[in-house]
Amino acid sequence: MSKMIHRNLRHTPPTAVCAFGMYLRDSKGNTYLDASGGAAVSSLGHGHPDVLAAMGAQMKTTAYAHSGFFTTDVAEELAQRLATDAPGDLNNVYLVSGGSEAVESALKMARQYFVENGEHERRIFIARQQSYHGNTLGALALGGNEARRRQFEPLLMDVARVSPCHEYRYRPAGQEVAEYTAGLLAELEQAILEVGPHSIIGFCAEPVVGATLGAVPPTPGYFKGVRALCDKYGILFIADEVMCGMGRTGTLYAIEQDGVVPDLVALGKGLAAGYQPIGAVLARDHVVERLRGGSGVFQHGHTYNAHPVAAAAALAVQKIIKRDCLLGAATVRGTTLRRMLRDAFGTHPHVGDIRGRGLLVGLELVQDRETKRPFDPDLKLFAAVKEQAMDCGLMVYPMGGTADGRRGDHILLAPPFIATEADLAQIVNRLSDAL
Ligand code: PMP
């Protein structure tokens, strides 16, 4: 009997034995078309020879150098590249080992930013309901995903919550988008005033909501309004781009499409496209200058910060995205995939919505197409769809409805940017069988 602890303690998943391009194969010979990039990770598909070559070369020179003693050319080049391509003066890059670590690091940098200024009373973050920002205790406290949080409460931090921005059906019937957006911003301002601006560190949100809502872009002007409120009250705006960043929505940073510059950005997943565990925090100049001019030390660190092989993988991924014009591919393929999904499921009785940006695509499952009434959350339909899809040789990323009934089950599609039209058609066919 295996001693490994799997997430589902009663069930051992299939054993992956090889992965190439759009496919993974298990030990029984089944193949799976990767329509979710794992969890929106594998943006270049599997076994990309150029990434493997870059990792191999780095392993042969310096496989590991502790960042407390050394930096490396590869980490510096990666940081330079991320910063150059980032909007505004997000010129400073801190490399960690994954998405939750990136979020934790951003939260701590934000806290220290105020502590350096003697503002110790600032302790509170504002985040959104139903949000997910990672599974470590700080990131979990920040997130508003009730199901994930419940059994670990009370959590470590105080977080005030506001509504997510959902461009689709949660808007009251007849309400204009502009009016809806203004209402959300008024709610955020109200929350800031209730908590007291001088107690707040920052506001954190995903520019395009990935797993918890199922590929939901913001309404036009929402993040401009968020930025203005953060400026007005002197609090930091932290963008969690762990899932939606690194080209997934058709621009390297999803927030570019909203025309604002956050103070801190967390990255993970697509950064090294699954070839190595790596995450990053990008910080604006004013954030880092305050720390540099104050204690001069970021009071934080992990053993695998700026890991050279992870940095080599991420750097290779960045180069390939540019060389092969994959941002454009993500935009075009995303539009194609949504069109194919609409053609296939536009009148399906249980598909309530098809949406997304770039190759971050969501399909919402409801009891009734017209009223959008969600399925009973206890049915855990999302889990059944995932299993059924696996039986049909397809990987989709599932998320469940909430007990408050505001959100239905949905599945997330986030295929590699290298997907061809034929691959997309195959995804839709297999999904059709699964549904
Ligand atoms: N933030 C967001 C938006 C995410 O989607 C995730 C992962 N699903 C995380 C943070 C945490 O990343 P990781 O699982 O790599 O720790």
From TrEMBL:
Coiled-coil region(s): none
Record-listed E.C. numbers: 2.6.1.76
Record's keyword annotation contains Plastid: no
Keywords, ordered alphabetically: Aminotransferase, Cell projection, Cilium, Flagellum, Pyridoxal phosphate, Transferase
Cofactor: pyridoxal 5'-phosphate
Entry keyword annotation includes Transferase: yes
Record's GO cellular component terms: cytosol
SUPFAM superfamilies: PLP-dependent transferases
Pathway: Amine and polyamine biosynthesis; ectoine biosynthesis; L-ectoine from L-aspartate 4-semialdehyde: step 1/3
Domain of life according to the entry: Bacteria
One function term, GO molecular function aspect: diaminobutyrate-2-oxoglutarate transaminase activity
A Pfam family annotated for this UniProt entry: Aminotran_3
Top-level enzyme category: transferase
Similarity comment text for this entry: Belongs to the class-III pyridoxal-phosphate-dependent aminotransferase family.
PANTHER family: AMINOTRANSFERASE, AMINOTRANSFERASE CLASS-III
Protein's name in the database: Diaminobutyrate--2-oxoglutarate transaminase
Organism listed in the record: Pseudoduganella albidiflava
